[in-house]
Please model this.
Amino acid sequence: MSRLSFTEFATGQRFTSHRRTLTETDHQLFMMLVGDWSPIHADAEFARLHGQGKRIVHGGLGIALTLGLQTSALDFADPLLGALGLTDWTFKVPLFIDDTVYVEVEILDKRITSSGNKYILRRKLRLLKTDGALCQEGIASALLALPAGASQ
Model:
């Protein structure tokens, strides 16, 4: 894992998380948490007949996994003040129980805010299967405390 501060972030840097295998328990707990029991996720027979041949794991679980797994690739040395949002998020291929996934993080840019004591870091996040298939991707922006004495 890389632990970086404002002055160490550079456009184009890439980091890779550890891997994680999706389980039936993950799938069930997420459905219970969000309350979405759509047949494509919960009904094996429906999914076999109308989908990809088996139940599809929620896309929202993929987003949550991406945000969580990225922390095994990149740790912020500066205090994280908040998430600013996800943009341009797309779903490329479905996730299934027993898929093993990992996250690639790419630094897009950083900028000091008008307050002068914070900065915004934008990262491209990609959730991939171990065979290299891109499942989901998008841009995540975060607000961090600017270390004393740091400048562009």
Remarks:
- The mean pLDDT is 95.
- The radius of gyration is 18 Å.
